[in-house]
Amino acid sequence: MAKRGRGDHGRRLSPRDREELERRIAAGETQEDVAGAIGCDVRTVIRWIMHNGGLRSYERRRSPRNLSLAEREEIAVGIARDESGAVIGRRLGRACSTITREISRNGGRQRYRASVADQRALDQARRPKQPKLARCERLRREVEGRLQQRWSPEQISARLVLDFPDDAAMRISHEAIYQSLFVGSRRALRRDLSKCLRTRRVHRRPRGRRQGGPLKDMAPIAQRPTEVNDRKTPGHWESDLIIGKGGRSAVATLVERTTRFTMLVRLPYGRTAGSLHAALTTALPSLPDGWVRSLTWDQGKEMADHAQITADTGVPIYFCRPSCPWQRGTNENTNGLLRQYLPKGTDLSPITQRELDQIAVELNSRPRRVLQWMTPLEVFNRTSAMTT
Questions:
Q1: Which of 3, 96, 217, 293 is the right S-S partner for 89, CB 3.0 to 4.6 Å?
Q2: 316 and 339 part of one domain
Q3: How many CB atoms lie within 10 A of CB 67?
């Protein structure tokens, strides 16, 4: 057995990679799509989800109640002008006491520096703080008891206000309860209590794009014009993806039903709906006028943006029934031929569009029995000449 190298799943993610991972998870993308987009192994994504409970890292935002760097610079200017705290406060719309405390806690008038004071405030804001449920045992017991009764965090949060109307310590948001269940660094409740939730999940599932189920507003293949079936009218295409190693890369394949002419389109950002949308809206307009009358696709999640693709290109898209690949038989056959060039298990991400174009040229230059031993390119050119 070959040793497992560090590879993608062995490298450390950069801060930018982690930020992109969090953004995509929060948007509802699948683990495979996220791994493909940032170039890591899917196990890295899974480990992040298990550690963070599917939530984004906490992003601290400066409250409007806190002084900004610009305000601190104005304070420094006021000190240089020998203005009083009251004068500086009136100009900034702040209380005099706020200005005097700010100056005194940061070295006084002789040593005050706006940038140093601002960084000190940020550092103090980042200091570790215990979650409220870890600090207040009575509140934690109430929350745990109600979770065991199958109450939702939202129900618990709202009911505590009614049951303890005069006790500010017995207040907690539903989001804080979720975080205390799921997020390792903020976990203050027993993790097994997550099984008491309706979903019984052990991590959050971010709201975002569709996770499963049928595509919205799709046109089934039964609505496709009957002229498509006899293959006499050119411009009707069958399309799909071929998937690379680990599901992290893909290439879109488009085959014209009449001529068997093939186009290959690189998806530089993986097999996401956005990546396919961008690729198709670039590739389809490159074909001659009248040569793109329709697309037939399967019901893969990569076509979640099908309505926008149609709006941008004017090309209607029809969808096969689930588990009926023969409804795209021409495309399925072509994908089989492509595996001579792109075997299963190949990482497709390094392949350039120029290399894909060369593969398409070779495929389109092969004689086909179904075309009476003419090539797809010959039939395409002849048909183009007849229709112009």
A1: 96
A2: yes
A3: 20
Residue range 34-63, pLDDT digits in tens: 888 888 887 787 777 666 655 444 445 566
334 closest CA partner among 324, 346, 342, 322: 342
User: What does pTM read for this prediction?
Assistant: 0.48
Query: For 332-377, how does the pLDDT look when each residue is reduced to its tens digit (9 = 90+)?
Result: 999 999 989 999 888 898 999 999 999 999 999 999 989 999 999 9
Q: Select from 336, 386, 344 the least CA-distant residue to 366.
A: 336
Give the residue among 177, 148, 169, 172 at the shortest CA–CA distance from 159: 172
Evaluate whether residue 207 is within a structural domain. no
Residue 355 tokens read as 């290399």
Residue range of the domain that includes 266:
219-387
Q: Spell out where 244-324 has E strands.
A: 250-256, 262-266, 294-297, 317-319
Assess whether 257 and 379 both reside in one domain: yes
pLDDT tens sequence across 247-272: 878 999 999 999 999 999 998 777 88
Nearest of 199, 194, 208 to residue 29 by alpha carbon: 208
Same domain, 267 and 375: yes
State whether 46 and 156 are in the same domain.
no
Helix (H) / strand (E) containing 237: strand 236-243
